[in-house]
Amino acid sequence: MKKLQLLVLLLLTSTGLFALPIGNPSEASLYTNGAFATGAFYNPCDPSLCWIDYWSARLGFYGDYVSNRHLQVHTSQDGLQGGDAVQTTQIATNAGYLALNIWDLIDIFGTLGTSTLHIQANSSNWNDILGAGSLLTFKTYFSWSAGARLTLWQCGPFGLGAEGQFFQTNTKIGSYFESSSGEITYFVDDNEAVYRDWQAGIGAIWRFSFYDCAALIPYIGVKWGWAHLSMNHLSFTTTGAIGPLTLNNLEAQKLWGYAVGMTFTLGKMIGVTAEGRFGDEKALYINGQFRF
């Protein structure tokens, strides 16, 4: 029975992949046609334009899957565990995406969806002197994010852009699996955990256009990010434990990362982006959107 429980938990963690995507640095300037209006890089000084011509909106899907967000025990808290890194932190987010665009240069965007977390940790992270390791699972709960993206400069096919964003999910601690004993501890719904992620990044693109109706836009970017997972130092006791275990708060272990990605656009109205992230995390990002 214990082997079956362990197999189920491992299968669950294998599907959990998550910090924040950089996205295409020039995304705010890629979609200049819409279902109800067309335009191309509005000049805010043009006296013939109406104020409503400056605005557009896009809808889409946002999928962010992190196989390991490098976290460590919060270094400012009491105890000897400060700075100890956990083995892996996995976060999977599926959400709807909405962007409000200004002048084809600025995006103000947000997401609404759900996220799931899994943490594989060492025994020292939770004061577990008997176990060799553990698996901490969280329930799937509502998550949201908000941010902005700005096209800084464009010259022919080359462009530069910057972004900043914030992500949060208020979730519940689900279960704790101790690998040495095979014991699983389940938690009640009042054990809330809050995960927050802040990020700022900058990147460059190069556009390959095809017949003015389709384009491939590869990009590369660097980012600074900070994450914090608060579990309110939840303490509990497992069977055979000498003392209580404490689920310490976690924070980002690595602050800098980089990303490479590719965007495909069609008719300057719809597009799909795929991105891989490395350094402070290992992650995959998928985004599809449509301007209307």
How would you describe what is shown here?
The chain is mostly beta strands and 292 residues long. It has one domain: Lipocalin (Beta Barrel). The chain is built from 1 helix and 17 strands. The strands form 2 sheets. It has a 15-stranded antiparallel beta sheet that branches. It has a two-stranded antiparallel ribbon with strand order 12-13.
Any chance you could write out the topology, listing elements then pairs?
Layout: H1 2-14, E1 55-69, E2 71-73, E3 88-102, E4 106-122, E5 133-138, E6 141-155, E7 158-178, E8 183-186, E9 192-206, E10 208-210, E11 214-230, E12 234-236, E13 245-247, E14 250-252, E15 256-266, E16 270-278, E17 281-291
Antiparallel strand pairs: 1-3, 1-17, 2-14, 3-4, 4-5, 4-6, 5-7, 6-7, 7-8, 7-9, 9-11, 10-11, 11-14, 11-15, 12-13, 15-16, 16-17
- Write down how many β-strands occur, each being a DSSP E stretch of 2 or more residues: 17
Oligomer: single chain
Q: How many structural units, i.e. domains? A: 1
> Which CATH class?
Mainly Beta
Radius of gyration, CA atoms, in whole angstroms: 22 Å
Q: Hey, roughly how much beta strand do the residues contain?
A: over 45%
* Tally of individual helices: 1
Q: What kind of sheet is the major sheet? A: 15 strands, antiparallel
Low-confidence stretches: 1-18
- Classify the secondary structure makeup into a structural class: mainly beta
What would the principal axes of the Cα set say about the shape?
elongated
Distance between the termini: 53 Å
Average residue pLDDT? 84
